[in-house]
MFS general substrate transporter
Amino acid sequence: MAARQEKPAEAQAASLSVDDGNSTHHPEPVVQPATTQEPPNGGYGWVCCIATFWINAHTWGINSSYGIFLAHYLNHNTFPGATRLDFAIIGGLSISQALLVSPLATITTRRFGTRVTLLIGVFFKTLALICASFASQIWHLFLTQGVCFGWGMGFLFVGSVGVVPQWFTTRRSFANGIAASGSGLGGLTYSLATNAMIERIGLGWAFRVLGLCACGVNTVCALLIRDRNKHIGSSQLAFDYRLFKRPEFLLLMGFGFLSMLGYIVLLFSLPNYATSIGLSAHQGSVVGAVLNLGQALGRSPIGYFSDSVGRLNMAACMTLLVAVFSLAIWIPASSYGVLLLFAFLGGNVAGTYWAVVAPVTTETVGLATLPAALSITWLVLVLPTTFSEAIALQITAANGGRYLGAQLFTAFMYLGAASLMWMLRAWKIGQLEQAEEEEEKSVRPRTSYLRRLFAVARV
């Protein structure tokens, strides 16, 4: 069944995205002859893949180190008068603003090209980190580490996330998994480095070093990346409301929404959870680093096997595993070793959404509609990414500092996400079976006509 799912994916998804019965404008991207051009399935695409890998390492990877900042803020009176909820919302803003700015990033990509969009992201991200180093009040941190950092990450992410799938067909999920694993490697590196820098050179210089590293690497990668928007007739619409009329797209949005509610809690809470059970700040940073190590190691195999066993199948199974690990390992974890085990195993599958979002969205709506669909996706994810960690901290505070409620919340969100992905898989199978039936019906009349002709000849 997995093989049946993969072979006609591009052709059928593209045909489904052409007309939903309400197409009254912008038909150009669908009818361009360039859309029939086969992707090179590699070539310079591997350069784009590696460049996107390093962009992810210096956007989402650096953002992953916010768990270290959060633990430092909560354990030290860095900003007098600030509450736990303030710090939780700052971490959520850094991600939600990246997603909220996606329509604008999509528009700049359409008008000025991918490279300009990426360089805008480099500017905002560098500005945010350098300015955060001089923050003395909590609202300074909201504007810098929250809003401005999120804008920079958004332009870089939106500008690069749709490029890798344009260069591949049969190895699309594998290449996307490699690119996505950059966030895990970056998170591993910067979780350890951030804690060490805060202890040795102080909070301000930790921000400045991160800003300079991000500026240098992201600028080089922005100059290397090339898109194939013109070759595939990419729509690049900032908001295509017609997608909301398609049930399969709504299932995909639900999958992402619930996945993010669970993922953000894992990403930001583990270092502080470590200190809550009596571990040191250094041990908490190691736990956060191991979680990111798991993401770095896990995303490429998830992408590789997605191409062979089915992208929807892999997304559903790996998402379900996160819920199982949360219930079976994280909840009873009360020692350093067990928590490290959960961080590694959970990290391998926790970021499944980011490894499969572009290929699964392509599978659902088609390659030409991918940018418009992703633009809507990022907007839908604004709410869960903003408030997920705040919800977890509030649940924890209501339970006297115990994380059991937050752990159950994480597990059930992943369970719900896996259920929606299985429903999307059922829809995909139904579409393939319907296409096969229609193909058989188109062949049967010709067959019966030939039989009658031979019957007449025999008579």
Observations:
- Residues 40-433 form a domain with the Growth Hormone; Chain: A; fold (CATH 1.20.1250.20).
